[in-house]
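idk why but the lab printer keeps eating my pages so im just putting this in chat instead. protein + uridine-5'-diphosphate:
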Amino acid sequence: MNKRRRIYEGKAKVLYEGPEPGTLIQHFKDDATALNGKKHSLIDGKGALNNLISEYVFVKLGEIGVPTHFIKRLNMREQLIREVEIIPLEVVIRNVAAGSLSTRLGLEEGSALPRSIIEYYYKNDKLNDPMVSEEHITAFGWATPQEIDEMMSLALRINDFLVGLFLGIGIRLVDFKVEFGRLWDNDQQVRIVLADEISPDCCRLWDIASGNKLDKDRFRRDLGGVLEAYQEVARRLGVLTETPRPRGAGPVLVTSNDGKPN
Ligand code: UDP
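predcted complex ->
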């Protein structure tokens, strides 16, 4: 019987008390939601795929010096993470117009943006996560100007790295959402670290060869094949192979039917 104390339950994840103070267990559920929870389904196996994909991305980001909450994956559904105070903002980084940006500014989905754009949304389900400016963030005390600078510079580093990572496996990183948390070290100094997850649930990933969507838009827009799309991302990243890959091995090269690199 599972007697762990549940700290928080969100739409796609549950946080449990961790084995040591300052740690938590992040459990990935199979639930898929959209329209602020109004649309809901269970997609068998999605949680495990997101766990594997997010582990891979967080480990790689850690290796290039991006501080994260990730400690280690515990099993197919769960990761051990550091407990952080989540900053109540969704930080969205965009490279290509899509989704709400296309709607808001009348930009055709798929048109390249002049440069990467960062947006902030206030995490509040009752208000449907409204977009906010730095003025709102500092005036209402959700983050300090220094924390905004730190989040922005981390977000751009994460974006640069992930654009290249996904390009290497034939995928265009259109946009994605990240969350940050405050982590206290022993000297009670606060550090901003990447928290939550990075998976096809919170990214737009388009197959470069076909233009197919390999992300949650398949669920949001009733395109079908949600699990298959997530599996494809996991397979290309090399986290779905039956035999373990050697340590330090990079992403899997995408080849066309004739075996030549794309
Ligand atoms: N996103 C997310 N959670 C949210 C809202 C957006 O993970 O609550 C991600 C979404 O998957 C996309 C990016 O943030 O990769 C930008 O989303 P957008 O603002 O276009 O909103 P949407 O069209 O998804 O409502």
